[in-house]
Amino acid sequence: MSKTEQDTPIISKLADGCLEITLNRPDRLNSFNVAMHEAMAKAIETAKSDDVRSVLITGAGRGFCAGQDLTDRVFSEGEMPDLGETLDAYYNPLIKNIRALKKPVICAVNGVAAGAGANIALACDIVLAGKSAKFIQAFCKIGLVPDSGGTYMLPKLIGEARAKALSLLGTPVMADQAKQWGMIWDVIDDDKLMVEAREMAYFLATQPTIGLGLSKMAIQAAGDHELAEHLEIEKQSQREAGRSDDYRIGVKAFFAKQKPVFTGK
Q: If DSSP codes are grouped into helix, strand and coil, which group holds residue 234?
């Protein structure tokens, strides 16, 4: 890592349609401060570009993200801070933007993912974790509520009973358990995590981006609609996908018994 990269809270690299975003404050377990939030917002804005067809988020060093850097918040004795302002300004837009990206977002969790760090990971579309990774809803340890979508995502992923227990007890969930519960997609040996995560991200960057994005949006919306309403969403999504160049490329390759070369358009 160059000296410039060492001083950069977010490292963002685009290659072959895949944008790799690395949280880069390893000395603080990649916990967020204002500078890191601002750099992450710029990286996510880059991810909206048509040049980007998949996104991979990971952390530098021995952990993925420890959530909020509490040393970045200094309060006077007796002061009643408005932590909602921090959520409004930084965390909530980040979660919304990850969920709104009409392209696959993969998260490679190395080591600990705690507090907001855990919930940022869970907001991604496909979560891969190293065997040593663990997820901790650490908010209860300082008297706070799981934020960054924690109280929304956890019940959907693992059910209300488990979500409540993890939030009220702050019990760490190791990677293998997280996979068993359906919290994440897969567990990879630590030394192979980034190899497999990049392989998946670069593969997805070659796939029909419009169709994948529409699939992502429809699945995320499923819990908010009755069947009849959701069938309408599927219809409109399929209509849009069917007008894409990639649909024509895919059908033509199917009949020619060839491998399709999708353009993401």
A: helix
Q: Is residue 237 a contact partner of residue 170, using CB atoms and an 8 Å limit?
A: no
DSSP 15: E
Tokens of 39: 């750099």
Q: Which residues contact 196 (CB under 8 A, 6 or more apart)?
A: 128, 188
- The span from the CA of 201 to the CA of 51, in Å, is 14
Using CA atoms in the order 76, 82, 85, 86, what is the torsion angle rounded to 10 degrees?
A: 60
The CATH number fitting domain 3-204, selected from 3.40.50.620, 3.90.226.10, 3.10.129.10, 3.40.47.10: 3.90.226.10
Q: Is the pLDDT of residue 2 over 70?
A: no
Nearest-CA neighbor of 113 among 181, 183, 51? 183
Q: Does residue 66 contact residue 112 with C-beta atoms inside 8 Å?
A: yes
Helix (H) or strand (E) segment spanning residue 14: strand 10-15
pLDDT band at 208 (very low <50, low <70, confident <90, very high): very high
- The pLDDT of residue 74 is above 80: no
Question: Using CA atoms, how far apart are residues 196 and 129, in angstroms rounded to an integer?
Answer: 10
Q: What is the pLDDT of residues 129-187, one digit of tens each?
A: 999 999 999 999 999 999 999 999 999 999 999 999 999 999 999 999 999 999 999 99
Tokens of 199: 């392989």
pLDDT bracket for residue 248 (50, 70, 90): very high
Query: How confident is the model over 34-56, as pLDDT tens digits?
Result: 999 999 999 999 999 999 999 99
Cβ contact 146:154 at 8 Å: yes
Enumerate the CATH 1.10.12 domain ranges in the chain, comma separated. 209-256
Give the fold, CATH level 3, of 209-256: Lyase 2-enoyl-coa Hydratase; Chain  A, domain 2 (1.10.12)
